[in-house]
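Q: I'm building a small set of examples for a reading group on sequence design. Run inverse folding on the following structure and report the sequence directly after it, with nothing in between.
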């Protein structure tokens, strides 16, 4: 039976579309705002640390490594906190976290790009502490945002649309950050002042867009192990964590994201070095944003069509394959701005396919986990997923710093050595190639959750929920967390 037919059966079983266009666009605007805040660190903070604060590249990379590992555990702690809330206020289970954390997050972003009048050691400690705080508050705001999807709708196609719109909003944030930030900095003779003005502009814009999202989304399905719609006994944390590790599709998706997210973040962190030193054209960074990153939008637009034709898993793999081929060619042929923009267009188009599907696929793993364990933990599942993404960010911050130190990168000089130029090129193209292959392996051999199986899971859960609501426990799962083995 085809995916579209089965999806129709799920809709007739009570999982009909419920989202308005305003709500869909509102959700997408949230990732536009979060990316205005997040991309500042991923794009420019390493260069700010090495060139403005004067921190050794290896030490700067270590700051990223430690901070992101901390963030990874903060994600799990926040997910546990959110899922185990027993009292929900008027702002809901997830929206309340977003409401209170956004403004402190914006202020910490601005603080991250300050040059305090300290010694080098003092500036290093300052950079470390502020970045740790920023990552922690980001977790408090962003984990609930990701967990909103299964709370907003149970319709599979609507989840795919939300996932694509989130990717579209995030990509628009990345594009604007790439095109606009550096010209603002360069408009000031005092580079430190330029950083402050630029980051303040993006902090304000990000805050506004996040609150636009907050006011336009609705939580409809609040079903946690002990939430407002469930009177079952509190599920021990040990069983909730055991459920996560037993969720094979979730682990496969996490491993794939460990690869593609580290590849993506290494590339966007290194491209500011590549354009300045390998191409000798700092304006090339804006051209990448304007012309190459813009190709993510066609990728986002075509993703729902591809998933209807070949399924989410195959679309994910196709995107990684396109990414691999583009970077393979780029490693050998890119020596000017035009060739970089052309091949980067294919890279970003390919990356849009898996990145557009991540949030829909993690929602599918929530329901897989509920079917197999009887535990529904949106925030904890999402936090486990983002734990691997934060680990990939740790790798993405650490690897460039260490490689730059090994190849003897020298900040604020007109010309780098041949060794340094090769190291920058390898980070830009070779590292993402290897990670794209790793992601393909993880999705093909570990994830293994087809769209047809997702539809079956939706139907089985619908029957189970209907029986529970009617007081009929026949065939229902033990909500104390007993794991069910996949057939």
């Amino acid at each position: 039976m085809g995916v579209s037919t089965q999806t129709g059966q799920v809709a007739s079983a009570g999982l009909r579309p419920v989202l308005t266009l305003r709500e869909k666009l509102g959700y997408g605007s949230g990732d536009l705002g979060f990316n205005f805040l997040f991309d500042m660190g991923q794009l420019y903070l390493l260069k700010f640390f090495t060139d403005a604060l004067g921190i050794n590249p290896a030490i700067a990379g270590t700051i990223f490594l430690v901070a992101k590992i901390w963030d990874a555990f903060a994600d799990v702690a926040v997910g546990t906190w959110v899922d185990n809330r027993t009292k929900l206020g008027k702002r809901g289970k997830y929206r309340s976290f977003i409401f209170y954390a956004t403004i402190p997050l914006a202020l910490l972003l601005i603080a991250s790009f300050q040059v305090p009048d300290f010694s080098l050691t003092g500036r290093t400690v300052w950079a470390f502490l502020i970045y740790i705080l920023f990552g922690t508050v980001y977790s408090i705001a962003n984990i609930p945002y990701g967990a909103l999807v299964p709370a907003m709708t149970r319709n599979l196609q609507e989840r795919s649309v939300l996932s694509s719109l989130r990717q579209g909003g995030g990509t628009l944030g990345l594009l604007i950050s790439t095109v606009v930030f550096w010209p603002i900095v360069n408009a000031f003779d005092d580079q430190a002042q330029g950083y402050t003005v630029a980051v303040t502009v993006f902090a304000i814009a990000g805050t506004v867009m996040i609150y636009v999202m907050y006011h336009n989304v609705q939580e409809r399905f609040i079903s946690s192990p002990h939430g407002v719609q469930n009177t079952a006994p509190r599920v021990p944390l040990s069983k909730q964590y055991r459920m996560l590790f037993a969720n094979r599709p979730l682990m496969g998706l996490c491993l794939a994201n460990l690869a593609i997210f580290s590849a993506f973040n290494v590339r966007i962190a290194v491209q500011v070095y590549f354009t300045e030193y390998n191409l000798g054209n700092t304006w090339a960074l804006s051209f990448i944003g304007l012309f190459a990153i813009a190709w993510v939008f066609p990728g986002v637009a075509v993703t729902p069509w591809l998933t209807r034709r070949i399924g989410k898993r195959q679309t994910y793999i196709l995107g990684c394959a396109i990414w691999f081929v583009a970077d393979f060619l780029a490693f050998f042929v890119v020596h000017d701005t035009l060739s970089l923009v052309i091949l980067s267009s294919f890279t970003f188009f390919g990356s849009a396919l898996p990145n557009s599907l991540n949030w829909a696929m993690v929602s599918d793993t929530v329901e897989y986990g509920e079917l197999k364990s009887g535990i529904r933990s949106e925030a904890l599942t999402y936090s486990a997923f983002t734990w691997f993404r934060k680990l990939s960010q740790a790798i993405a911050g650490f690897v460039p710093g260490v490689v730059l130190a090994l190849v003897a990168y020298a900040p604020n000089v007109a010309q780098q050595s041949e060794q340094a130029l090769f190291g920058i090129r390898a980070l830009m193209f070779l590292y993402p190639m290897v990670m794209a292959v790793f992601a393909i392996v993880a999705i093909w051999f570990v994830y293994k959750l087809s769209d047809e199986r997702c539809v079956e899971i939706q139907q089985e859960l619908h029957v189970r929920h209907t029986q529970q609501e009617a007081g009929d426990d026949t065939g229902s799962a033990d909500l104390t967390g007993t794991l069910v083995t996949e057939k």
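The chain has a mean pLDDT of 83.
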